[in-house]
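Please go through this chain and its backbone structure tokens and walk me through the local backbone shapes. Keep your notes short.
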Amino acid sequence: MDMAVILKLHIFAIAFWLGVLGVEFIIEQGRALNEAHRYAVAQQHFKIDMFFEMPAFILALVTGLLLIDPSQSSPLYWTKIGLGLIAVTGNIICLVPITLRKFAADKDSRKDVLRHSRTVDRISAVAVPAGLLALVVGAVLR
């Protein structure tokens, strides 16, 4: 496949992924409103991850791996790749508490919903900035 096409797919996947993260950020704010919203957020975030975010970050990962140029010697280039891998790894790891939170909401377990929500927040606090930095570094390198 043509590298220009792979690059366009990569950029599309990242843009789509960022849009999904924006939607998730907005719905996550609703969990503070009340118990019903907290459970609805758990259900909605799970569906968004399974049907939209996971395919987007998998496409970003695959196209990113295909775009790696081993001949690059710039530390900034490898920093971008490292940051992107942190972002993807964080999203993969985050699927666990997102899924556990959904199951906890299904069982009406307030304590577990709150616990898994805190885990999602902690992972996101690392993965999202890493992804945004990778995007900035990628733009600088272009």
